[in-house]
Amino acid sequence: MKLKIYISIFVSILSIALVAQEAKLTTTVSKNKLGLNQRLRVEFSINKQGGDNFTPPRFQNFRIVGGPSQSISQSYFNGKSSYKQSYSYIVQPTKKGILIIPAASIDVDGNKIKSAPVKVRVLDPVDIPKDPNDPNYIAQQNIHLVAEISNAKPYVGQGVYVEYRLYISNNINVYDAGIIQVPKYNGFWSQEIKINGLSAKKGTYNGESYKYFTLQKSLLIPTKSGELSLDPMKMEVAIGVPTGRGDFFGNPITKNIRKEFASAKKIINSKELPLDGKPLNFTGAVGDYSFSVDTDKQVLKANESSQIKVTVKGKGNLKLFELPEVVVPKELEIYAPERKERVRILSSGISGTISDLYTVVPQFKGKYKVSNISFSYFNPTQKKYKTITTEDLIVNVLEGKELVSAAANSVQKQALKVTGKNFRYIQTKTTFTTGKQDDLFKSNSFYLLLLLSFIAIPSGIFIAKKQEERNSDLIGNKLRRAERLAKKYLSEAAKQLGKKEAFYESLERALHNYLKAKLGIETIEISKEKITQILQDKKVSKLAIKHFMEVLEDCDFARYAPSTTLEMKEEYEKAKKIIIELDKQF
How far apart are CA 242 and CA 168, in angstroms? Predict the structure, then answer.
């Protein structure tokens, strides 16, 4: 009995809610643009119960090939009710041009409600299969995998972003989808942009209404000029395709199929940076930046440390250029800088701050000038180079040893002045006293020192022979130097083990810095093919070149794939071995 009461109450609430909403008759079409030989689905729907005497429009310039079919749907969810009564037609245009589907009408509560007219553009006939209801053909017409780029003609070093979208028509349902091929970005520095879950959005494709999902976003920075291609993304989609038939209640029958889709190949034409006005100290910075050099202490004591901070802040290719170096007077001891990065990677580019932190320790008292530093960058918006120059820094050391000059070390000859009291400090009488002291001879210390002397002689001979053997081992010495060199360049990557993104960026930077030191060129600005050619010219073996390029490619690929700490350690060891091998061959 109670159940019947609850059902009655629910039906009453639903009826009241449906009556309260304003009646509206809408017209939707399956596509806004079609070929002369294609078909179009037109649906008229009313959102309120009680509709009667539906009057379709005169489909002038169209031929009705199916329908009308009628369907009703009703729901109540989260306190909101919805109702839809639809009348559907399948029509085919009879001529080209912009055609109008006139308004339809229906009576609701004694009022006649009309829909708005809809424009449809009809083009030349297109190639279609013999069976227009073929599920594969319908899927191909209603699903599109698209790569959209923000700028097709960037400068070298200027960031662009690519977004892969899956457009789905409202005429079909997608049950499952999965990416089967991820695009590669040859000729670009790339970084994937995180997407917080897949959510459907409304959009248009070729002038038609679609819902779409953003599958992947990546920031791309071209590292060379010329025509660069983006490989297609491929994915497999499970689709529910209408068959053109209806069930007993008039609802359309669908057929589930799985189909592979691929995005079109995209071309980006990267422009070389202009030579006109290019500063000599330009190191590849492209974007919009500010630059500063600061010190935490300008007054200090000798052997007291101070820090000089070189900072670049702004938006651009922050991870792809080197900061200018600080040069100090030789009286100041300066240590290798520590790199600090606080950057965010967005769809519009990289923004944030990078800085080098130098530790400086003065040795002598005095005032020392750290000369001004200049930083140059190219602004792609204004299409010109800019240079920022800082002020000189003064380091004032108040306490410590005086810096002795050569003039201060010279001795001036003076005449000897003789007086009667010149030698009055000389003692002419002495008093001899004896005191008790321990005799070293035959003591424990004596025998211990004697034993140590016998041990020290053969030990010294043994160590000298080992040192001689080590010095004569040219191959071993080269190997040890190479190992120290590899550890030096890979030290930053070793600190980032376990942090995937930071580790692979540091590893890639270490490899480029090694080549920069050995070859005297900025390898991060040139392509992998050019690096291979340079190494071949240096007579490096094909196997070593192959291993080096594999590590670089692994660094690129690892940004888009999960990596464990063990895999990072293996990559670190591989990079260490290839640096040692290249150093031996160089």
Answer: 14
